[in-house]
Write the structure tokens for this entry.
Amino acid sequence: MIYLDYAATTPVDERVLEAMTPYFCEVFANPSSNHSCGRKAARAVLKSRQSVADLIGASPEEIIFTGGASEATNLAIKGIADHFDEPMHFITSSFEHKATLSALHDLEKLGHEVTLVSPDRDGVVDPDDIEAAIQDNTVLISIIHVNNEIGTIQPIEEIGDLAAQYEILFHVDATQSFGKIPLDVESIGIDLLSLSAHKVYGPKGVGALYLREGIPVQAQISGGSQEGGIRAGTLNVPGIVGLGVAADLAGAEMEAEWNRLENLELSFLQLVQDRIGDVYLQGAHYSKVPWITNICFEGLDGGELRDALGDAGICVSRSSACAKSNTASHVLEAIECPKELSACAIRFSFGRKTTPERIQEALDTLEDVVMQMRGPDYESPVEPSVPS
């Protein structure tokens, strides 16, 4: 198997798993228990809280552990909304992760107003469009940092400045950027930030919400007083330990991994263009991370291509793993990708175990599968759907 779907999830790093293991059966106490075993578990949680905070320039008291980034995003958006007795206004983009869009759709059902700002064809949101959408009752701007389908980086620094200027809270979905791109919540002006462990070689089912001190958020899960009363429930100590170690490793390896994956992606794109042809990258390369690559293969059905590659041992996806299978990508629709191209889109995403040798193997298979599916009678379009 050649795994090229790291944007969906990553394998748990062996070093992370080793650190987690004692907290299943040895240091298994409830960290809220006031005895020596509980305090030992609590110290492990505190250490991880510090590790996550350090990676984004926050204080450990501002880290709220959750069951994942989707929960953190819902807590941020709905937790802010619940502090108001009257309908308020929220701004986001039209190509956010479904967790953000669905949470805001829930708020619309309660009478709140939501404005969706469209990105440009390159897959980047214009801060001027954000500013134009601001109303007197706007209380939150929520923007994804790195788009999970096309990998484009959004100008969160400029948007953060706008939010501060208008005294509006700013939430960032950093699920695809945490541990991969340097982040400093203080300098950017981020008030709330969602992150997940399983995108950075940590375990599934654990994430966190950065919540700037003093920002009022209403708990969405009722129960005990864990996490400062903001997120009830017994803490997932092994998972939290895993997130902390994954954060430490990501911080130490961030720059080297970016450079490695950048070289890998450039080679991959060149080989795809040279050996296959009639392929079109979605999302501007000038503002994109090197580990997410969305390519449209002219003349093919993306679902059939994904399945054929899967049968040949190459794991790729069409869009977000959270989207319904074989449905149109709302991300490609948002950037106005022609329908005939979005139907033949494939997302390749790379990670720590992606090597040049594996890329070459994948390219050999990809070329064979595409040529077979196009057939001997395939002709390149006289006028391509979009510029190469």
Observations:
- The two ends are 30 Å apart (CA to CA).
- The chain has a mean pLDDT of 95.
